[in-house]
Amino acid sequence: MPGGPPGPGTQPDxxxxxxxxxxxxxxxxxxxxxxxxxxxxxxxxxxGGRREMHRTDLNALAVIMRHSAAxxxxxxxxxxxxxxxxxxxxxxxxxxxxxxxxxxxxxxxxDRRQVQLHMTxxxxxxxxAMFLPLxxxxxxxxxxxxxxxxxxxxxxxxxxxxxxxxxRHEATHPPHPEPTQPPHPEPTQPPHPEPN
Length: 196
Known about the structure:
The protein is mostly helical.
């Protein structure tokens, strides 16, 4: 019977379309995602620290690499927007990466006011050296899964990334409450004169 407890050999009713999984599976998945994020940050801190690079430095190089691969121009303004940095912090970041040999600056435009950022071969070499051990470990772990399972995981992780981006947008751009309109008074009819 719908709504009743499942009998022997029967499967429980599936959750409604778009609803969360039943039981504590949702919480378990969220905890695993949190653990992965935490451990990934620990790895970045450890690998970058050996080369005296901050996590923000590595995030900046990742932004430049992603935009450059898509054929987009990367400026300090792009870094400031994507990394949520102030203008002084962005300038310090670009200066630091330029001084370490990981970044070059090229002035564009007729007035040469726009600055375009490029990664150097040294940045690619250091990045490969830092993340190769992680890539090897993750590749070995992925070998235990079938292509169909990996495709499902990829779809799940893509959905989680999109959900996180949407939540961040809502957190930084909260919806404005709609102004409440005062209730309109009911129209009153003038009293009818009583007949003489």
